[in-house]
């Protein structure tokens, strides 16, 4: 890390560790920045899109039907940023057929842990506000049983970490977070800012909290995933998001280098406006995509409900396919609490109406997929505004 790159003392200070390398200690948030006309417009658009998405979440007849696929899609995309290669199909199949291997087992476990951590965090908000304690609890669930022996689930690091390409060290990495002693003070400042209310727009505060968390990098592993989890949980705690439907991982993945460059530029040049524009544009694009995707799924559900008519068992199974579009007759029997022949009739009816398709080619233990559902979930995200990073 080159100390000369850090040209803005207001962002933090560069120190020299006893071991000889340099590290960055962020200044207590919030930083000073100017609301120019461009930033105000981007904030207004993001705020409107988020409010529309939150309103939609309150009107959903059965939120769980849409939340489940959103959460799993986010888990796959967020984990992919960190190098896992598990697909959404791997995760959905693993949930339905836990005794059958699907994809790389270690990758699947990491993604499943993300789902567990997010669902835990949402429930925990009923009793515990966002805090360093909850951050550690999320990390413990995220890193439980993952590969490697340096994860220390649920514990803030007691040794130095760094951000850089494979093979780099603290001596030559592009960014070195604060050493453990300085990290504790930085975390305390971060938590104090987390608890502030009515001083900044929630979306601006969320963006600054995310940058600060990534600058501190308090864990040996899993910082990026925890940081992205906290975006959704912060907005839910503040009442800006009624359901967990907003996830920025797809946007960050699409603009990964800009994301890393702008985080670094906030530290080196105090370019907070560029970082905020990037983050807020991501909120707007992601919220509008979530609105469109939710509408597609609700329309699809109503379309097939009309086709099925008054068929109670088939209608119950139809809803289950929005939670997990893969199904077997045995799984259908379990969901419907009926005999195998009755479940087979419900599956056959959905297959007859074009909702299910047999994809295994097996005579026994046949596997069916609700192709219209998986297509709606995996539909590429739309782009609403061209982001320019200057």
Automatic annotation (TrEMBL):
Pfam families from the UniProt entry: Fic, Fic_N
Keyword Transport found: no
Molecular function terms from GO: ATP binding
Stretches assigned to coiled coil: none
Active-site residues, as the UniProt record annotates them: 217
Keyword annotations of the record: ATP-binding, Nucleotide-binding
Binding site for ATP: 82, 217, 221-228, 259-260
Span of domain Fido: 130-281
InterPro entries reported for this sequence: Fic/DOC_N, Fido, Fido-like_dom_sf, Fido_containing, SoFic-like, WH_DNA-bd_sf
PANTHER family xrefs: FIDO DOMAIN-CONTAINING PROTEIN (PTHR13504:SF38), FIDO DOMAIN-CONTAINING PROTEIN DDB_G0283145 (PTHR13504)
Name by which UniProt lists this protein: Cell filamentation protein Fic
């Amino acid at each position: 890390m080159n100390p000369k790159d850090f040209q803005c003392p207001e962002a933090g200070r560069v120190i020299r560790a006893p071991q000889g390398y340099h590290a960055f200690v962020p200044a207590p948030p919030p930083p000073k920045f100017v609301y120019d006309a461009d930033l105000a417009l981007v904030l207004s658009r993001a705020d409107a899109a988020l409010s529309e998405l939150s309103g939609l979440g309150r009107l959903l007849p059965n939120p769980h039907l849409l939340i489940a696929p959103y959460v799993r899609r986010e888990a796959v995309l967020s984990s992919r940023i960190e190098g896992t290669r598990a697909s959404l199909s791997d995760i959905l199949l693993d949930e339905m057929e836990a005794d059958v291997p699907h994809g790389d087992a270690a990758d699947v476990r990491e993604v499943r842990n993300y789902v567990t951590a997010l669902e835990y965090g949402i429930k925990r908000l009923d009793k515990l506000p966002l805090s360093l304690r909850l951050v550690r609890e999320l990390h413990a669930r995220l890193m439980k049983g993952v590969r490697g022996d340096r994860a220390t689930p649920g514990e803030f690091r007691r040794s130095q970490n760094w951000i850089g390409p494979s093979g780099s060290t603290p001596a030559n990495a592009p960014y070195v977070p604060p050493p453990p002693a300085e990290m504790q003070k930085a975390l305390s400042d971060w938590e104090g800012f987390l608890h502030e209310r009515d001083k900044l727009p929630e979306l601006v505060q969320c963006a600054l909290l995310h940058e600060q968390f990534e600058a501190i990098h308090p864990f040996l592993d899993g910082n990026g995933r925890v940081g992205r989890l906290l975006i959704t949980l912060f907005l839910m705690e503040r009442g800006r998001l009624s359901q967990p439907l907003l996830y920025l991982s797809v946007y960050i993945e699409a603009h990964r280098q800009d994301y890393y460059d702008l985080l670094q530029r906030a530290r080196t040049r105090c370019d907070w406006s560029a970082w905020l524009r990037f983050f807020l544009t991501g909120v707007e694009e992601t919220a509008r995509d979530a609105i469109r995707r939710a509408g597609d799924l609700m329309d699809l559900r109503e379309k097939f409900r009309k086709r099925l008519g008054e068929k109670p068992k088939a209608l119950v199974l139809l809803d289950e396919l929005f939670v997990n579009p893969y199904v077997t007759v045995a799984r259908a029997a379990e969901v419907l609490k009926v005999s195998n022949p009755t479940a087979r009739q419900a599956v056959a009816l959905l297959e007859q109406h074009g909702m299910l398709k047999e994809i295994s080619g097996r005579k026994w233990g046949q596997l069916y997929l609700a192709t219209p559902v998986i297509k709606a979930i995996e539909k590429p995200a739309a782009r609403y505004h061209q982001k320019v990073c200057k």
